């Protein structure tokens, strides 16, 4: 009898700049077997996230780098198909940090592991987007780190992306005035359609600082930063006294980590007594229940519209990731397996 196998996406070489297809390989390996207390999961939805780019470089990050020849790490939504843990019975849907593999084994202590309760009629992929890690990240950054409240002016970079598009909607639902930045006229229109009071096409602005100041002449209370680099430099002098900056990501330097932008305006942290803090969503487990409840409620009320681009098949994960890192996508990039 032939032993069962699984397909994986592995790292063949470390990317230089934007990843290319030759950096990845689709391989077939023996299907893993769960040990005591472990569970075997079949991936149902794979997630492409900018943070994965940092794991592909051989340098320290908040998680270890992917080894050459090893499967790519990333968030996954899957279904338990074999279980040695009574708390995770067969048929359970879950999210966790795993690998790009049709089948994988995890323990109950896996990073970010949590059950998924799929509501009737709600597409499963939403639970990897605005109703899942994307929405939780947006909520934690906006409310737990940024302390956004009704009446605040909130600026969001990469506002047509997965997290940014969700932040725009959450901030509007909370009664904030929202300014979203995106690259290109089409993406700026998407940001407007999501409810932003002002959408700035940064590619069409010769002076980004002037454009932001025009949109917020009285300053910014909360900046949700997905970009870093020159954009962060432009925003810092425009923050209001005691403003808050939630640093979610710095996609401007992910493809060129050896040459990071040197910020020149950090003195503004002192001038305006700003709070600037990076965060990882799952460092805040005490608020995730509240966050999930708000996401589910707003979705049910039609006030949260998941923005996604979806592909089919494990083999599509590398190309989907490449397009994400090339700035060609809008919303959350997902692959159905």
- Secondary structure: number of strands: 15
Radius of gyration: 20 Å
Q: What is the beta-strand fraction?
A: 25-35%
N-to-C order of helices and strands: EEEHEEEEHEHEHEHEHEHEHEHE
What do you see in this structure?
The mean pLDDT is 94. The chain has 337 residues and is α/β, with parallel strands linked by helices. It is globular, with a radius of gyration of 20 Å. It has nine helices and 15 strands. Strand 9, helix 4 (185-193) and strand 10 form a beta-alpha-beta unit. The chain folds into two domains: 5-127 and 306-336, Quinone Oxidoreductase, Chain A, domain 1 (Alpha-Beta Complex); 133-282, NAD(P)-binding Rossmann-like Domain (Rossmann fold). It has helices at residues 51-55, 133-145, 162-173, 185-193, 208-215, 229-235, 268-271, 285-300, 317-325; strands at 5-11, 24-30, 38-48, 73-83, 93-99, 103-107, 114-115, 153-156, 177-182, 198-201, 220-225, 239-247, 275-278, 308-312, 332-336. The strands form three sheets. Strands 3, 4, 5, 6, 7, 14 and 15 form a seven-stranded mixed sheet that branches. It is 25% helix and 28% strand.
